Structures are given as C-alpha cells and as structure tokens.
Amino acid sequence: MPLHPTVERVTARIAARSRLTRAAYLARMASMRHDGPARNALGCGNLAHGFAATGPDKPFLRGRTGGNIAIVTSYNDMLSAHQPFETYPALIRAIARANGGSAQVAGGVPAMCDGVTQGRFGMELSLFSRDTIALSTAVALSHDMFDGMLLLGICDKIVPGLLIGALSFGHLPCILVPAGPMPSGIPNREKARIRQLHAEGKVGHDELLDAEAASYHSPGTCTFYGTANSNQMLMEVMGLHMPGTAFVNPGTALRDALTVAATERVLRITALGDDYTPLSEIVDEKSIVNAMVGLAATGGSTNHAIHLVAIARAAGVKIDWDDLDELSRITPLLARIYPNGSADVNHFEQAGGLGFVIRELIDGGLLHDDVRCVHGGRLRDQAKQPVLEGTMLRWVDPPSSTRDASIVRPLAEPFDAEGGLRRLQGNLGRAVVKVSAVALEHRVIEAPVRVFDTQEALLDAFRAGLLEGDFIAVVRGQGPKANGMPELHKLTPTLSVMQDRGQKVALLTDGRMSGASGKVLAAIHLTPEAADGGPIAKLREGDVVRIDSDAGLIDVRVEAVEWTARAPVQPDLSPNRTGMGRELFAVMRAQVGSAEEGACALLDASDRELQA
Q: Quick one: average pLDDT of 518-543?
C-alpha cells in the first residue's frame, strides 16, 4: 500500500524544517570518519594506555587491524532491569574475538529508577539523568579507540540518554542491546486495585508491599507498558535492535543468542568493511516519524513526547507536538497493554508482539519501510521474530493473525481509530495528553480548578477530606526549569479513587506524569511552565478550565481583560534547590529549554553556542 498522505506530508515538513540542521549534522559526522581502525590515529603512548589491561586482546589491539567495539553499559545490581547486564561484557568480548575483532567496556552510565524515586526528592534528578547519561556516553566514546558501539540499556531515561550521546559519534555503527522484561507477576490491574485501596486507607503497609513485591519480583524490566518498554518499541521501529529483541526475557538462551548476533553484526557494519552502516544514517527524518507512529499505535509513554524531540534534535532533525498529534490522529490503536489494557508486555509478545504491529503498520502505509536498519534489511525485516532451533538463531515471519484479539489487533479491526497521544493548545499554552487508557466519558472536562504547588499538598488536601465535587487539580512549578520536571505518578491512585467515586476530575500540570499514565485525564508537560511566567502561573482557585482532548483544546474561562491584567504568581522554588544532590544540577535547570523542545539542557546550550 502507498504511504499514507499524512505520513508523507509530515515527513516532508520535518525534512524541510530540518534542512540546515540535518545537513550540518551529517557533514560533522562525515568529517569524523576514520580511514582504517580508529586506534590507528592514536600515538604510541595513547594506544598503550588503551590496551594496557586488555589481556588476550592486547596483541590484536597492538596489531592495529580489525574492529574494536565500545561497550557502554548501564549495569548496576540494584535495579532489576539493569542487573542482567553484569554478564554481557564477557559474552560480547568472547564473540568479538571469535569474529576477528575485540570489545572493551568503554564506560558506564548512571541508571536511576523512577519506580524507586517516585514521589521522593530524587525524582527531581530523573529527567536530567538523561542528559547526564548522554554526557557519560560521550566521555566513554571520547577515547577514540572504537569502530562501533553496543549500548547496553533499557529503562526510562537510559535509552534516550545513550542514544543522544551516541549520536554525537554517529559516524560509528551502533546497536542497542536490551536485557528484556521480567516474567509476569501478579496482574497489573490487581496491583492497581491494591494501590487504590491503600490510598483510601483500606489496606495497610504490609499488604501493599506484598502486592508490589509480587509485581516487581525478579531481574528484568517492569512488565507494564511504561517508558522503559516504550523505549524498546522505539528501538525496534527505528531499526536499532536486531529484529525481535525487545521483549525476550533475561536469562534465556534466546536472549544470549540475540546478544551474540548483535556483536557479530556490529563488527560487520563498521567502516572497515563493505557494509558500513553508521548511526547517523539510521536515525533520520523517516525513522523519527516511524517512532512517532509506533508510539501512537501502541499507546506508548507520554515521556517520549519529550525524549523523541531531544533524540531527533541530536541528529539534526526538528520535530514538535503538532507532528506527533497529526500522526496520532491517523494511526489506529492496535495494542491494549497495561495501563491501557490488562495485559503486560509478555502477554503482548505472546499475542503477536511488535512484529505483528510493525507489519500491520507497514501494510497500512503508516510506516516508512525504506529505512536503513542495523540488520541490513528494510523495516519489514524488523518485523521478523527470533527463534532458536537447537543452538541456531533464525528469524521467522510474525503470525498472520493475532493470537489474542483482546491484546493486539490488525489494522482493519483496531481498538480505536486514533492513537494514544494528543497535543492540546489554547490560552493556557500547549500540553500533551494520553487518552488511550481514558474512557470516552472522561476525555472532556470543564470544572473549577484547585491549585497546588506540590503533589504533597494535593495529597494532604485529599486526606483531610477537602477535595469534594468536580474539579481540575492544577499542580504547577513542576517544569524543567523549576525543579527538573519530576513525574507526578504518586497522584494516580488518589485521583483514580475520586473518579471511581463519581467525581469528574483531571490533572493539569507543567510537570510529567508517569509513562504508565492511566485512566484519569492528565494534561501534562504544559508549556510555557510556571517558572517561565507561563499562563498556568496566573490561575486562581476556582477559575473554570476546559480540557477537551477530543478537540485538542485547553482554555481558562476568564474574561480576556481580567486575564490579561493578572500577574503570574511565581512559585517558591527554594525547597527544590538543595538536598539529594539537587544543588549539583543547578546548571541544568538554568540551561534547559521547554518540554516541547525536549527539555534537554545539553542541546539548548549547544544551540546557543552554535548560534553565537
């Protein structure tokens, strides 16, 4: 089927908008390409430092022939998603040697978990950890010893950060290597039920902890479809994984076989061979459009309304929320994965998974099939699914029909005619809303606002019985410049309780919600933010606001003369300046741009330097 006209139009618009920045980026990458192994450019002292501790690889590296692969890893053994990476470097090194190359752990990057920091001061470092990871990736690769890279990461800010950093070294080939989701624990809806009961005071600490521990119970990513698993979908749709890598459980023979395949492949696509495939040529306008379509079709994380903008900018591509909105409006919703369904990603994989979804979207003209992928084929080849026959890894076509129509459906029978993300705009600014998990009767609300400067203030008001009737909860002073734009997922159980009681409620904030944004309407990422004097700072208790996610509108119903005359109330940000390391991130708060610009302090500072 020919490409959908909206996909074609949005792609052309992005390419035109990005013409100068993309050309400058590609020229920069071309200038960095090496003739021969990268380490040949090093002096003898430099190179000796680089191979001093390499043991069996020392003669190879000293010989200055063959490819050397950088491993950049997010391993730590506190977080379930990253613990499996402990054993990956030994496997990768062995496979590289067997294929005439070598591999070195070039560096590690921090990997924090929003599940641990949710509702805590540490969450105010979360978004900026993405920029820190990008910086750490650049430091790791700066030794200029490498002909390709394997990026070991999986969760929320880690994959975007790794990719942003790696794009500064886009002359090198790059493959993302995940660890996979943990096996299924208790059903996600049961976990949510216990959380709501705890929010109402109907179950105690021990019962809540039992439910959480039964959900998050072993190595691997969390199994709901939040930002971590949306990351894996994006890497598949962008052609940066070996096909079908995303949702294979850790500790399995298939998982190891895919890591082996990634190592063998990255050695074959360096500039030293005939199949040179640099990262800079994979991440382009078409692959970014594919990512936005994939996000919409699967009801993915709202966080990628920020991360995708930053990733694109790192590759010289300029996108905005209008692009995301237009694509979402013409992309049917093909998956129901918690929080917009009851299944987890393991169930999704068993029902047909990303291979089924990618093929359906290509056949419907909604994805660019003619993109470069790390495996050397077209995007249609990315839809193939890995299987082991004995010890032999091969790829097979995805199922011709869904194995469970309650989880994944064909394009002709979608769950919804439109995707899960929309852009809102009006006299309060621009925002993002995820509607894939929101019932039709809750997608529009007009109600007075209750204004809070912290999520704790809202929770205290709920505990005190002060939140009665219909209202829109405004939580402001939560943007990137204010306090690093923390997720406000701690509010989800409380708002859900009130909605289930029959109250019409919604959230309006310049902060983020979780990648697991659920059944309560939440207009988030509002820009301009309160710390920039945005209109949200002018709202007063009792003002009537309308959020219409169907029409894409967000307005305050205040007379224009009065609204213009109002002065914004600047939030007191002093409590967010110190403690838990927040003082160290002052430079990022000062440099960061808006949410729609990707909330990336690094890219905004770089843009200013280039313009100067």
A: 95
